[in-house]
Amino acid sequence: MSENVLERMNRIGADRKIADFKVKQKENYEFKVNYARIRAWEFYNECAKRDLNVHVSVGGLDSITLLLFLRSIGIDAPGISVSFLEDKSIMAVHKKLGVVSLKPANKADGTPWKKSEILQEFGFPVLSKEIAGKIETLQHPTDDNKTVRHAIITGETGAFGGYQKNSRMKMSQKWLEKFGGYENENEGVNYGTPNFKVSSKCCYYLKEKPCDDWAKEHNSVTYLGLMASEGGRRAKSLMINGCNYFGKSTIRSAPFAIFNRQDILQLALDLNVPVPEIYGTIERKKDGTLYTTKAQRTGCSMCGFGVHMEKRPHRFDLLKERNPKEWEYWMYNCCTDDNGERYGWARVLDYIGVGY
Fold it and tell me: Is the C-alpha dihedral spanning 316, 310, 181, 202 positive or negative?
């Protein structure tokens, strides 16, 4: 039988790699910037040996800073983005910097996916990409995902997961109470189910696939503005695989992997990065902490990942201030349920306990 998850982590020395990575995260700003420069050139040179081109996947402030950082050290990699997903002020910066604008992936009929069509067809991107993926699995049971569904409810992983009893596969009790009801009969529990679909597929169809398709067409691999300090599903992977990763199906560089938020904002100041208006300006508190005066994070205007952790005014509150008509559309009119009723994010936010 092939090795399980725990055996693989032991074989590759995951614990040691994570510990070494965390040491680098504690280094000072100058160390991190120099480390990013070394890793970025290391990736570029290795790609050249493999006859691969390189590009930058550009979105908000972090990846805009990465694009200009690479240019500042002599790596003139093109930037690509599905820019129409971003705020208008981010789109303006992309245009100014010459970022290549892509369209979303095409549907079966050959036309590009629209944001509202993604929500209607697959569901809402809520809580986090990892949790949404788990909820989506519960909402679409098959014989093949039976073991995974059991792990999501109980934490028991089975053979592939090393027979763990309380693994991280288990969804938190708070969200099991809201979304675990699809397995009530199978698991003997009494959880709730929402009256809307949940999905993590929006990023794939709107951003990941068009960027991957462009990369294949141009024989190119990507620099990403990811930081492990931001958490999420990729944090552990960054810690284990490091800044540069050359795998069988994935090749990527994340030169800022060991950065934290303060590091990225300081670098943006040092490079005179054009800060999109949605972020306001970068300022310093009395204790020296850097922050952006408006949005701290940005993304697609219909994305809800992480909104439950934001203080008000949260992203939808800010959208209401910027564009009331767009806010009303996403909150109340972007989807139609089985009863023919129009609905949107208001239904979702009500269910997870977020005000608006």
Answer: positive
- For every residue of 319-349, DSSP letters joined together read HHHH-HHHHHIIIIISEE-TTS-EE-HHHHH
Terminal Cα-to-Cα distance of the chain (whole angstroms): 51
Q: What is the pLDDT of residues 212-228, one digit of tens each?
A: 999 999 999 999 999 99
Residue 112, phi then psi, degrees to nearest 5: -70, 145
pTM: 0.84
Give the closest residue to 275 by CA, choosing from 130, 96, 128, 120: 96
**Stretch (H or E) spanning 204:** none
Dist. CA 35–CA 164, nearest whole Å: 37
Cis peptide before 274 (omega within 30 of 0): no
As a whole number of angstroms, the distance between CA 217 and CA 188 comes to 50
Over the stretch 78-105, which tens digit does the pLDDT of each residue have? Answer: 999 999 888 889 999 999 999 999 999 9
Instruction: Identify the pLDDT of residue 161.
Output: 57
| Average pLDDT for the chain | 93
Query: Distance (Å, rounded) from C-alpha 355 to C-alpha 242?
Result: 38
Per DSSP, which regions of 128-271 are E strands? 220-223, 244-246, 251-253
DSSP element (H, E) containing 290: strand 290-292
CB neighbour list of residue 348: distance below 8 Å, 6 or more residues apart: 124, 126, 194, 196, 304
Residues 55 and 76: their CA atoms lie apart, in Å, by 9
Q: Which residue do the tokens 């208008």 mark? A: 88
Compute CA distances 86 → 56, 94, 213, 244, whole Å: 16, 10, 20, 27
